[in-house]
Amino acid sequence: MPHPDERVEYELWTNSNDECSPRCGEQVAFVRSFRGHAQILERGGYARFTPHYITWYCPEAFRLTRQCQSQCINHGRYCAPDREEDFGEGYEGKQVVVENLRQLCVHRVANESGLPWAWWDFAMDYKLRCSMKEKKYSKACAEEVVASLGLSLEKVLACMGDPDADADNAVLSKEQEDQIGRGSRGDVTILPTLVINDVQYRGMAGIYGMLVSISGILHDHLGTLQWEYLNQYSSELLLTYILKW
């Protein structure tokens, strides 16, 4: 895996929806298990993390249909599927798009505040406090979580813009652009997807696999025997090495 500098840059493509399929459960488990490691790595300057969220667009000819109006914001420009596939039942796809947008903006505001690792706290707290299963997946619940982390709600809302406007949203347009593959990096089409130093990571989205990939970038700094020794042990040992490197 290429490593142009000594800092690992990685992305997680995920979703705020917690009832879409078993993959949603995998994403929740990953955030829960990797949060502490990710925050330590970023605080120490060893890694830079960026969350991403997949969106689709509705063809212009269908933008007035019930399907597009239920699943999309900004007049069909940014969409997410309805989890029940029943447009009169439960949460709508457009609610998921709005929450995905909010979480992107939480990360941007946290970065501007010098607290980029705060996204992990928001993502985990939101999943615990604002789940769909408990019928708490809402704007009000999300804003309570933002406030509890000491982030500026005003800045988050300004970043989000107006989801009802017949106009592009700069944050979500950038997400759609980043979904498209380039060079050795393919399109992002499934969740969860990890991208490390601009190369897609296709292993299990778990602590061990993640740390093995990150520590693999440091392989050139180790002798063969030391590398093999570290590589056969736990994520905690690999993390300890990364932090001491």
For the largest beta-sheet, the strand count, sense and barrel status come to: 4 strands, mixed
CATH architecture descriptor name: 3-Layer(aba) Sandwich
* Number of discrete domains: 1
CATH superfamily descriptor: Glutaredoxin
CATH fold-level label: Glutaredoxin
Strand content: 5-15%
Q: State the strand order across the main sheet.
A: 2-1-5-6
The shape, in one word, is: globular
Give the helix proportion (percent range).
40-55%
Question: How many strand segments?
Answer: 6
Number of helices: 10
CA-to-CA gap between the ends?
18 Å
- Unreliable parts: 203-207, 220-227, 229-237
By CATH reckoning, the class would read Alpha Beta
What is the element string, with H for helices and E for strands? EHEHEEHHHHHEEHHH
Structural class: alpha+beta
Secondary structure elements and their pairing?
Elements: E1 8-14, H1 22-43, E2 47-53, H2 66-71, E3 72-73, E4 78-79, H3 93-112, H4 118-129, H5 139-148, H6 153-160, H7 170-179, E5 193-196, E6 199-201, H8 207-216, H9 224-231, H10 235-244
Parallel strand pairs: 1-2
Antiparallel strand pairs: 1-5, 3-4, 5-6
Helix pairs in contact: 1-4, 3-4, 3-6, 4-5, 8-10
Keywords: Glycoprotein, Membrane, Repeat, Signal, Transmembrane, Transmembrane helix
Protein name: Vacuolar sorting receptor thioredoxin-like domain-containing protein
Subcellular location: Endomembrane system
